[in-house]
Amino acid sequence: MSVATVKIDETIAALRALLGERLSTSRAILERHGKDETFHAAYPPDAVAFARSVEEVAEIVKICAANRTPIIPYGTGTSLEGHIAALQGGVCIDVSQMDKVLKVNPEDLDVTVQPGVTRKQLNEHLRDLGLFFPIDPGANASLGGMTATRASGTNAVRYGTMRENVLALQVVLPDGRIVRTARRSKKSSAGYDLTRLFIGSEGTLGVITEITLRLYGIPEAVSAAVCSFDTLEGAVNTTIATIQSGVPVARIELLDDVQMDAVNRYSKLNYPPKHTLFLEFHGSEASVREQAEAVQAIAADNDGGQFQFTLQAEERTRLWQARHDAAYAAKALRTDCEIWATDVCVPISRLAECILETRKELDEAKVVAPIVGHVGDGNFHVAFVIDTKNPAEIELAEHLNEKIVMRALAMDGTCTGEHGVGYGKMQFLLAEHGGDAISIMRGIKKSIDPQNIMNPGKIFTQ
Amino acid sequence: MSVATVKIDETIAALRALLGERLSTSRAILERHGKDETFHAAYPPDAVAFARSVEEVAEIVKICAANRTPIIPYGTGTSLEGHIAALQGGVCIDVSQMDKVLKVNPEDLDVTVQPGVTRKQLNEHLRDLGLFFPIDPGANASLGGMTATRASGTNAVRYGTMRENVLALQVVLPDGRIVRTARRSKKSSAGYDLTRLFIGSEGTLGVITEITLRLYGIPEAVSAAVCSFDTLEGAVNTTIATIQSGVPVARIELLDDVQMDAVNRYSKLNYPPKHTLFLEFHGSEASVREQAEAVQAIAADNDGGQFQFTLQAEERTRLWQARHDAAYAAKALRTDCEIWATDVCVPISRLAECILETRKELDEAKVVAPIVGHVGDGNFHVAFVIDTKNPAEIELAEHLNEKIVMRALAMDGTCTGEHGVGYGKMQFLLAEHGGDAISIMRGIKKSIDPQNIMNPGKIFTQ
Questions:
Q1: Which of A404, B233, B248, B459 is deepest in the core (most CB within 10 A)?
Q2: With DSSP H G I counted as helix, E B as strand and the rest as coil, what are the percentages for chain A, rounded to 5?
Q3: What pTM does this model have?
Q4: A72 with A113, same domain?
């Protein structure tokens, strides 16, 4: 047991007095809270505290702080780089019961939610108001978790990421104080940007307890399209030309041939098993038509196959469900295997080169590893499907992952476009930012969390 | 002389050895560098260093750090809250000679510039490529200064502020180390958001030496419109309804009757001297027409007068020049007076109430103080035209300024939408954020600038 958790018994006793049944140390609960959706070793916490209010979170944090017990905030557990692993033990604060939509301001196009509200729940809540929240990372993640990992996903090419769509936060600091990072005005020049500091801080600076988000009117018209390509180049070049021509696509997603084959099997579809772009257009009926025609012409110039419109809502839903199930479809390619999903992001001018070299390398290594991507942003994912009981497979995936990341960095890209660092990508942060920039991050961490109790061992070594 | 500047002679001697003629201690140069464009007492620095490269900036910073000499970064001196005042003496680093556009990447829609490049210079450079940088705070500010104050302006309603449009920075830290805050990919989840931390930090954390910015394609069609209103309410409600209906206006600017009268006189125009909206639309020809018609209908519902289109580029330029000259026009309302410009920003649902109460209060106090605003963002400015030799006028303006800010805060708004804090608005930061949030900012400042040499006395007391 590490020094930091030496007083875990005192912590648990005090938390049990505070929370009663809502403090759990059952093995099943602990195990479920120590592992996210991808392959990283599980590290269960010593206890899970189910909080119901910001005041409770503050009390829990104070108790942990008094005993120097590590704290790991938890939403839905759908992160991908081991963010929720209790590397040094400690208390997981599960905020899934803080699931109230607190206030919608339709006139200001904003909403304030508790952190356990999921993106689907929010959009259900908003539908009758004609509003929606666009950020869609695939999983039905909690908005607290999406904020903490600076998530984005399929709609980011048009609507931006959590960075652009969070207006303000309420946060419980590592000493139990409750702060607001900003107010509801659309812009402000009043002091350091604490909101953006907490977005993407992965639970290392505090527990997010309220989030104010931007909203958008549901577009008058939405249409989708699918187009397959014989070459990966054709699909990627179509994407690049679309972005450069300024067509305001809402979604432009690439699934390579390996992934399309997996999706066809898993979702019982019969698309050509080729490199494929899934697109969505938002706007007026005229503008949606205009956008689709523009992309169709670009695809034709790049040897695209049939440009298949799917205007009906039902078919659109089926298509995007298939896209969102891509990871599960990939997993189904091999029995008893796990997914290890990595993601990088590069300037779009380098995207074709980056994806083509990656695909070639994966093929040469003979690994099962489909590529999918939010290619409009220069962001793509590789899902290694590996037998985690076979150390050689893990080692090979690690080796290939490193090559993918280093290639992206060499192209002026980032080691993660949207998954975050967790403990899975810590070794690449230094390569990306350099030691001096990391030392600034470390100084900020120390100034806010001098005891290093907030999600220790994540992002960078403390 | 304060403790911090006690070794100023050593600093000046070392800087002179480094820079020769480019280290100035001439009275005229010092005075010009100690005062920005609005009414705040002047504080000239002890010396001005004209840097030409990041390496030189780093050397200057190291010399100052060794002697604990305050450093004030300087672009064009067009800030408005005393940001460049050398409150504790020290060395002003003037980066106006670092004015190179380093690299345009048209395919990635980004550009990297040195901090002394001004926004007009950048747009001149980009025009032949069919690209533009939209952020336009009025003054022909340097991009370094715009980054440091988190500037925005007339186009922000559509394109966002510096917060959304800076991709990455190179910064010289207070100990002379040079860091990059990010790479060129459109998004990243790799660690704390250092880019956003430096945006809006007003020179208190380091000297910005390179900026990578997002670019946009010059729209196919641009049109402008002017519409006057008998009541301030009609103009503001037209704005609110336009934003809420989702029309993607590029600019929607309010000038109240006092300001329109001033503009007519100063720019020799003959608009009705009423509350007026200036608008601009970007898009395809069809979409620009559609947008204008939508706003025209909304204006008519709110008792708007004639909706005057100005489709020609020349007339559009004249119109926007008049808008940009609003401050000078206001100043011309009274001879031998200075402008004290304040700005606040509120959620748009509160904008009508906020502006109407403010106008009433200003009228009752019988001050000359036109209101102009980037009203699409809920942001407006009051320009007090005051005789700064009359303490009673200053005191009254201070009193009214406080009431304006407190009203905006009570409406969940901010004490400054885009001007920044400088030393002019420090007392309001606590009211806006609370002591706990300020303590986080203070901790960050201390972790990056432990000697407190970077622009001391700004944003919050250190």
A1: B459
A2: 40, 20, 35
A3: 0.96
A4: no
